[in-house]
Amino acid sequence: MKGLLESVIRGLGNGSIYALLALGFVIIYKATRVISFAQPALMLAGAVAVSYLAEVTGFLPAVLLAALLIAAVALGIERVAIRPMVGRPVFVVAIITLGIDVVVRVVVNALIGRDVRQMHDPWGFSLVEFGGLVVQQRWLAMLATTAVLVGLLYAFFRHTRYGLAIRAAAFDQETALAQGVSVGMVFALSWGLAGFLAAIAGMFVGTGQGIEQLTWIVALKALPAIIVGGLDSLGGAVVGGLTIGVVESLFQSYQGEVAPWLGQNFAVVTPYVVMLVVLLVRPYGLFGTREVERV
Amino acid sequence: MSESGVPTGRSRRPRGRPLLYTSYAQDMALLDTRAKRGWTLALVVLAFALSAVLVDRSLEVLAGAYVLAIGAIGLNIVTGYAGQVSLGHAFFVAIGAYTGAALSGPADGRTLGYGLTEIWIWLPAAGLVAALAGVLVAPLATRLRGLYLAIVTLGLVFLGEHVFKEWDHLTGGPGVGRPAAVPVLFGVPLHEDGPLGTREQALYLLMLVLLIVFAVAARNLARSRVGRAFMAIRDRDIAAEVMGVPLTRYKVLAFGISSFYAGCAGALLYSITGFVEPGSFSLLMSVQFIAMVLIGGVATVSGAIAGALFISLLQPLTRALPSLLPFISADTTQTPNVFQVETVLYGLLIILFLVFEPRGLFGIWIRVRTYWKSWPFSY
Amino acid sequence: MKSRYLVTGVAVVALLSACGVFRGDDQDSKAAVSTGVTSEPCPKALDKTKGCVYLGTISDLTAGPFAALAVPITDAQKAFWKRVNTAGGIGGKYEVDVETYVRDNKYNPEVHRQVYNEMKDKVLGLAQTLGSPTTAAIIGDLKANSVVSAPASWTSAWEFEDVIVETGSNYCVEAMNSVDYAMEVYKPKSVMAVHLAGDYGADAAAGAKVAAERNKLSFTAVETPPGATEQGRAITEITKNKPDLVILTTGPADAAAIVGQAAAAGFKGRFIGTGPTWNPALLKSPAAPALKALYEQSATGKPWGSDTPGHQAMRAALPGVTPNDGYTSGWAWAYPMKAALEKMAAGGDISRKGLLAAVKTLSTVDYEGMLPPEAGNFAGDPDAATFRQTLVNKVDETAPTGVTIVKDFFTGSTAQSYKMDGPCFGKL
């Protein structure tokens, strides 16, 4: 039972990384109807920025600066490569984001160089004990940070003009435009937010063991997370991310005993299995909006 | 197709009016104008002539491009014509590659093999097994649309990768791999120098012939009842259903045919290098196929071929480009060096192309054609 | 509009003919002695009177999984051949050029093959062909054309290829020796191999298994995926089964995650990592205390800071670089190629055939103390020629690459008696 709970907490920790990334995907999707495959590169860029800045400014300011920096980079990318594509088929734009991913990653890889880069985070692998459970501090830090960020995002979308603008544009771009919402601003804002969240997620990926050039692959786990939650649901992204983290962690801990016939490392593909199972029951994810069809 | 009052068959066009169609069959003909017939013939002749003109390594690159074109045509059937965006193409390519490799592999080797090296055995088999997989996946796919479908099919790639990495009796395992399908045609091994010229010339000709066969088949499919049903589904599936197109049946059919193409492409692709490794069938491969279709032009066979050529030739091209810019260092310790520039260029060229020409190569072609058609009043 | 297409067309044709894609026009105008050897000097020749031997390099230079290692390997080899040229070249007649044909394979077999095809008529051999699946895509052609090549990995498959001149023991032997070393020092009762799949991880795990069986230890193999966040299962298996010894064959960040978290969870057993598992930057990670307490590092060659003529020459040839044993490996891999070239030049048959013949008669190579001369045995059958000495390093913050030797070159009894009759990774 103790092992089970510890495994769940590890899953929640990793799951909150997936959730942050998934939020970025969903925000961009809601605003622009595009899945941005540039998120992995932005995540890695965020982690690299933290690793360099933390040597100068210390950890916490570095995280904030790095997140803002990556948000700025994302804004730049949006302005240069995505804005001209407004109204183009979404798959063309998605492929463009893949091109961006390649370009950004080459630059980031050059910055990573040949050594594993450290985040200089205060948590490392230190443990904390509560109620008989021994868990790593960083899992709790991830969970707490994600909770705070989700709260802030909720407030942002609910109570600010800009949040309202994004929701309006997500609901119907043309109508929003007619009502005086600057859709260009909405696009930029969504990319900026996604960049910000990706950078935080990247930092968390690097806590403990650091990051190397291959770390970007982690970000792909957010794709099944957004499908599980529903492509256009912010809450769904969080639930999806956490679900996938927990299921994956449980499989890592128990699949070897319970179902060895699935092959070693089945945990790697559990996110996709969860996704398929959810979709068999609910084709629009757990919280996605069912499309209303008119002919 | 003969209804009363409508002229049927290959009725002749009035002299001097080459663009006047007098029957439905003429309108739907494979090559409906004389110019098209001429140019297609010229292109095919040119393609065959290249085998005698180009050096072996270029032929090998082109042969690979032709095979990728077969795969891209397949993806275009499900994505371009039927409108079901699939990121799972690499999975079906893998199934074809391993079916071909297993059937033609040596029976006593380290990996599974049955020693049936004749291409006319393993090629259709590879296609059929992949098609079967496509048909099995399709029922799930018919419930979904748009990006949901794209990401679910992406999940297929990851699941497939896991299976292929674990099943090392078939695949040799990651990082190790296995020999790929052996192309032998009626006893003539095409992967060695032989009566058709060098190994590369023989493979080039094989792939070219197969590409033509597959392309013509796809073109014919597109202008048939099935093709029209696909397009109706793409444009508005509910409307199509109302008009009496059975959605599920046609979506399953689209996935099946597309996967058949993918399977054949997979089996052929690795017979060129002679070696196949399970890490090849990744997200990257699926994305490259999507890029081929988008860059070439959605829902056109010639576009898919052009797109496949574009993506395949892009890498040799980006390798050659930095040498024209001597100020970039070839020293790997420096940033930027030629290798980074090369990789960045690959990404950038795709971005630039799609930003400036979202309709793809086919769009450019249409513009050029219009320009000449309306000459001298083109502006 | 019109001029744009015209310009594009002209550019394409110019580019194509520049790349020499037309049949028959890549006959070398240079005075070719043989494929890849010219009597004209190298482009960056130090002595214009000498001819030039061209060697190709195909490596993972930008976006692939081994870019972090491949770049220092490639740099070290450039420096190595520069030193050879400064010292008079090969047989006093030729200089060696490894800079003209350097290509990026992106760790993709198809790309590897393409770039190999582009350079294959212009090089005598390959100074580096990185990766097993990538090299497998060209090995048929290497064998058919006798293209002698130096690998950039230590998989046991290379023992069975004549045209591949490997240096140092393979992962399989390395893991056997690690287990034997642990038997002497820690007397474990159980061994667990935590490994990546394929020619690297499974090769070492197979070696660990052989050694465990011979020493009558209980053995488990845990295959783990690459990626530091994916190591949950490996950590669970370690903390649950509590083996006395873990043979670790992963990437550096994976190793930090596994060792750090297992130690934090109270694991007290020993870890011995296979060569590429280590990276000096791990000492700056939160896993550093755990690594210092529990981790040792097996290696196929002495680390950067060692005191041999070869190491000194390397450090002198690479001034100002951040020490990394990628350089050390790259440098050491070049020695057999140099020995073979010299032997070929002395024999007089300056050609690929001559080079391969020279390789097949090499029974020792002068590594200038970096490795014992018998490491360069390419004569005889694979079992006899396989080099079986490795060393064990301990973590040491003061050393330039974070490790110092704790046990110098040795052959364990398992490796000594093991018959190499096929690549190990197939036997796990």
Major beta sheet, strand line-up of chain B = 1-4
Helix-strand makeup class of chain B: mainly alpha
**Number of domains as seen in the coordinates of chain B:** 1
Number of strands of chain B: 4
Mean of residue pLDDT values of chain A: 87
Uncertain spans of chain B? none
The amount of beta strand of chain A, in percent, is under 5%
Helix-strand topology string of chain A: HHHHEEHHHHHHH
Number of strands of chain A: 2
Secondary-structure topology with pairs:
The complex is a heterotrimer of chains A (295), B (379) and C (428).
Chain A: H1 2-32, H2 39-57, H3 59-82, H4 90-112, E1 127-130, E2 133-136, H5 137-159, H6 161-171, H7 173-178, H8 183-206, H9 222-229, H10 234-258, H11 270-281
Antiparallel strand pairs in A: 1-2
Helix pairs in contact in A: 1-5, 1-6, 1-8, 1-9, 1-10, 2-3, 2-4, 2-8, 3-8, 5-6, 6-8, 9-10, 9-11
Chain B: H1 24-27, H2 34-53, H3 56-81, H4 89-104, H5 119-142, H6 146-166, H7 168-171, E1 178-179, E2 184-185, E3 188-189, H8 199-222, H9 225-235, H10 237-242, H11 247-273, E4 275-276, H12 283-296, H13 301-320, H14 338-356, H15 360-373
Antiparallel strand pairs in B: 1-4, 2-3
Helix pairs in contact in B: 2-8, 3-8, 3-9, 3-11, 3-12, 3-13, 4-5, 4-6, 4-11, 5-11, 9-11, 12-13, 12-15, 13-14
Chain C: H1 2-18, E1 32-34, E2 37-38, E3 51-59, H2 67-86, E4 94-97, E5 102-104, H3 109-119, E6 125-129, H4 132-136, H5 139-144, E7 149-151, H6 171-185, E8 190-195, H7 198-214, E9 218-223, H8 232-241, E10 245-249, H9 252-264, E11 270-273, H10 288-294, E12 295-299, H11 309-317, H12 325-347, H13 352-361, H14 382-385, E13 390-395, E14 403-410, H15 413-417
Parallel strand pairs in C: 3-4, 3-5, 3-6, 6-7, 8-9, 8-10, 10-11, 11-12
Antiparallel strand pairs in C: 1-2, 2-3, 12-13, 13-14
